[in-house]
Design brief:
- The protein starts with a helix and ends in a 10-residue tail after the last helix.
- Helix 3 packs antiparallel against helix 4, helix 3 packs antiparallel against helix 7 and helix 6 packs antiparallel against helix 7.
- With about 200 residues, the protein is mainly α.
- It is built from eight helices and three strands.
- The protein is flat.
């Protein structure tokens, strides 16, 4: 799996393999929608690029919010803190809704499909079993490398703006951890994130 497809893990966890391809369920609990092997890889790859663009958009949005806050409240104070908080809440809410909308793409685009699409299922080999100790070691490595990457970006942005530096730390942590996760999957055939118990991330009534 490529790095971009690795970033689409939240989309990937909504699919379940079947003898004829895959079945998609939003948040793991929605209406089942059958998809082909090609469609599955296309949606996961699209979600991976969406993750990258959302990270870039988040950083730019926080930078813009900090600039607006600085222009309106040059002396800071309680008004500046409150205004920046409102902007950050709005940014996070918009980010959440955008990601959730993207994760519903198969449900929207294939809602009229009632039977599995034809075509053979490729690459149906079972994943090799990996010891829990190895996965735990990679998990620790992901946390360490992600933390170091986040600290590097935080140090680069902190002299300019502390709010942007915090967002940069978060993005650096995610990118560093995901890079190690991809290495883990290439070497062991198993992703640490995929080995975690199923969980629901974007549950929307």
């Amino acid at each position: 799996m490529g790095l971009i497809k690795g970033y689409g893990i939240f989309m990937k966890r909504q699919f379940q393999r079947t003898p004829t391809g895959y079945v998609y369920r939003f948040d793991g609990k929605g209406q089942p929608v059958p998809v082909s092997e090609r469609e599955y890889h296309r949606y996961v790859r699209r979600a991976g690029w969406s993750f990258v663009f959302h990270c870039i958009g988040l950083l730019l949005a926080v930078v813009a919010a900090a600039m607006v806050n600085e222009a309106l409240f040059p002396d800071g104070g309680a008004g500046g803190v409150l205004f920046m908080g409102v902007l950050l809440v709005a940014i996070v809410f918009a980010l959440y809704k955008s990601i959730a909308w993207g994760l519903r793409a198969p449900e929207r685009e294939l809602s009229d499909r009632t039977t599995p699409p034809p075509g053979p299922v490729s690459d149906a080999r079972p994943r090799p079993k990996v010891s829990g100790f190895v996965l735990f070691a990679y998990f620790v490595l992901e946390v360490v490398v992600g933390g170091l990457a986040g600290l590097v970006l935080f140090g680069l942005f902190e002299p300019w703006n502390s709010d942007v530096a915090l967002v940069a730390f978060f993005i650096g942590f995610l990118l560093g951890a995901w890079a190690i996760d991809r290495i883990c999957e290439r070497r062991t055939g198993t992703s640490v994130l995929e080995a975690l118990p199923p969980f629901h991330v974007f549950h929307i009534p």
